[in-house]
């Protein structure tokens, strides 16, 4: 793997940056095209246990496609995607569904079910995973705990249409947490939110990571979000992991493509 | 040359659409008998589709009965055949007008509703969220809706037929001094098993077609809010066209049985 970087001493490949822990997500040579549009051209990435990894890229650079490959929503053309030791593309539907209970996914637009109350939204993922949670019939304590984690216990019986954008995002986060996932994938967690609400969401993400020790993969183009939350960053350019390092390493880079992300 | 190419492109698109719809229908039959079964959601959809279409079917059926009788009356009087009014109205409503009009009303109301609802769920990633949570969205959203339309349409058709006959009886009662009892006795004497059964059977197929097209258009809605509108709109057009095709096939088959 090679990078066209001007400061190679500061930037490392994903394999080199492994922090000695256990890899929870491994992507190798991921390719995905939509017709003539080659979105991913051999993307590589490793997320270590307990790590906060940010993947940054321009709009349309393939960040969301990559994150959707991790949960089997998009099938790659080639390459391997391993999550928690399982190769996603080789799993049968039942095993994939079981594995998905260990992966939380926060969607860009929250993706709350419009026709359900907040309570029903949170209960919905539990329907297929009650054995994992040890819940027989009463889901109320789990729903309440998840909502208290995001500070919105009072919204239990409201409909999504009655909530603000920030509240929706927090409820979506609560819904993600209810299955107690080992890995959380955040797809643009702060997009469309005002700076204050964005800050609240970022704080919430950090407190959740601290409380549950989850590994987090954050897809964003929000530099402030990346600065606050990332332990390591990957820049996705032209379908490959163009550069990798910590926020301070990348922000000091003189490579024009890297620099373009950090210019104010 | 340009026109031929456009025609060829249009034909290709049409056959691809038919192929995709058939594949979608085949997937329904593949998954409908496999557990887990979403009974609660099925009941909810039956209630939504049945109950919420009731007022529309009532008004439409009543007006159809009234208008059909009012329009036919002068001609039948001219031929001295006004006593045949209950027979004529009864058979035409039960065999054809009732099922087709009710199905068209439901295609407009239900197919567009399903298309828009699933389309907006697709656009806002709610279907993806469902899949990620380990729930099969095809079973939860598609199978329940197609089952609900298939089960509810025959009930709505029978109800619509009765309301239309009541509308017709009202005209006969007011204009021809025919009692309701006499009117309905005459209607039921004129109707036979072979009128009711094919009409009821084809209503199931109408319901299936409405649910299938609505779900297909919504489930594969293109990204963006414009896609939701297109899904709702094309669902109504395609479902209405499919209803006439199904009706033609049903009438063709039942005609073979009448001749036996």
Brief characterization of the structure:
The complex is a heterodimer of chains A (264) and B (260). Chain A is α/β, with parallel strands linked by helices and 264 residues long.
Please characterize this protein's 3D structure.
Chain B: GO terms for molecular function: phospholipid transporter activity. Chain B: This is Phospholipid/cholesterol/gamma-HCH transport system permease protein. Chain B: Belongs to the MlaE permease family. Chain B: It is found in: Membrane. Chain B: Keywords: Membrane, Transmembrane, Transmembrane helix, Transport. The complex is a heterodimer of chains A (264) and B (260). By secondary structure, chain A is α/β, with parallel strands linked by helices. Chain A has a domain of 60 residues. Chain A has ten helices and ten strands. In chain A, the strands form two sheets. Chain A has a six-stranded mixed beta sheet, sandwiched between helices. Chain A has a four-stranded antiparallel beta sheet with strand order 2-1-4-5, covered by helices on one side. In chain A, α5 crosses α6. The two termini of chain A are 30 Å apart. The N terminus of chain A is likely disordered. In chain B, α2 packs antiparallel against α3, α2 packs parallel to α5 and α3 crosses α6. Chain B is elongated and about 65 Å long. Chain B has one domain. Chain B contains eight helices and no strands. By secondary structure, chain B is mainly α. The N and C termini of chain B lie far apart (50 Å). Classes of the chains: A alpha/beta (264), B mainly alpha (260). At the A-B interface, α2 of A face α3 and α4 of B.
């Amino acid at each position: 793997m090679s990078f066209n970087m001007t400061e190679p001493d500061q930037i490392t490949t994903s394999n080199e940056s492994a922090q000695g822990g256990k890899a929870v997500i491994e992507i190798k040579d991921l390719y995905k095209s939509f017709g003539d549009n080659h979105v991913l051209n051999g993307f590589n990435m490793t997320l270590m246990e307990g790590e906060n990894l940010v993947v940054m890229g321009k709009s349309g650079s393939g960040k969301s496609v990559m994150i959707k490959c991790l949960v089997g929503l998009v099938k790659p053309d080639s390459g391997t995607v391993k999550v928690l030791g399982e190769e996603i593309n080789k799993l049968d539907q039942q095993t994939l569904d079981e594995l998905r209970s260990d992966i939380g996914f926060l969607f860009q637009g929250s993706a709350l079910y419009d026709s359900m109350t907040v309570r029903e939204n949170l209960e919905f993922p539990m329907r297929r995973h009650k054995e994992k949670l040890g819940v027989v019939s009463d889901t109320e304590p789990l729903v309440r705990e998840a909502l208290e984690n995001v500070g919105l216990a009072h919204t239990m019986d409201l409909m999504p249409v009655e909530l603000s954008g920030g509240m929706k995002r927090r409820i979506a986060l609560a819904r993600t947490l209810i299955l107690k996932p080992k890995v959380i994938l955040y797809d643009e967690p702060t997009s469309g939110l005002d700076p204050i609400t964005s800050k609240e969401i970022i704080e919430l993400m950090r407190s959740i990571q601290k409380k549950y020790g989850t590994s987090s993969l954050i897809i964003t183009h929000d530099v402030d979000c990346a600065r606050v939350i990332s332990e390591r960053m990957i820049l996705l350019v032209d379908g490959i992991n163009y550069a990798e390092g910590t926020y301070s390493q990348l922000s000091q880079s003189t490579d024009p493509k890297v620099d373009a992300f950090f210019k104010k | 040359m340009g026109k031929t190419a456009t025609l060829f492109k249009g034909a290709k698109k049409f056959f691809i659409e038919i192929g995709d719809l058939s594949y979608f229908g085949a997937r329904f039959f593949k998954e409908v008998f496999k557990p887990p079964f979403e009974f609660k959601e099925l009941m909810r959809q039956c209630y939504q589709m049945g109950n919420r279409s009731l007022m529309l079917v009532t008004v439409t059926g009543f007006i159809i009965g009234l208008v059909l009788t009012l329009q036919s009356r002068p001609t039948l009087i001219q031929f001295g055949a006004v006593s045949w009014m209950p027979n004529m109205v009864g058979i035409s409503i039960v065999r054809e007008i009732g099922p087709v009009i009710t199905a068209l009303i439901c295609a407009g109301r239900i197919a567009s509703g399903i298309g828009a609802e699933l389309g907006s769920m697709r656009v806002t990633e709610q279907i993806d969220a469902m899949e990620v949570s380990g729930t099969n969205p095809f079973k939860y959203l598609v199978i329940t809706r197609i089952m609900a339309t298939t089960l509810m349409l025959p009930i709505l058709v029978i109800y619509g037929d009765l309301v239309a006959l009541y509308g017709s009886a009202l005209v006969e009662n007011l204009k021809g001094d025919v009692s309701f009892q006499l009117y309905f006795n005459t209607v039921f004497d004129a109707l036979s098993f072979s009128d009711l059964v094919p009409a009821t059977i084809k209503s199931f197929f109408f319901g299936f077609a409405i649910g299938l097209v609505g779900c297909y258009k919504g489930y594969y809605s293109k990204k963006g809010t414009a896609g939701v509108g297109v899904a709702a709109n094309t669902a109504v057009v395609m479902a209405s066209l499919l209803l006439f095709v199904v009706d033609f096939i049903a009438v063709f088959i039942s005609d073979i049985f009448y001749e036996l």
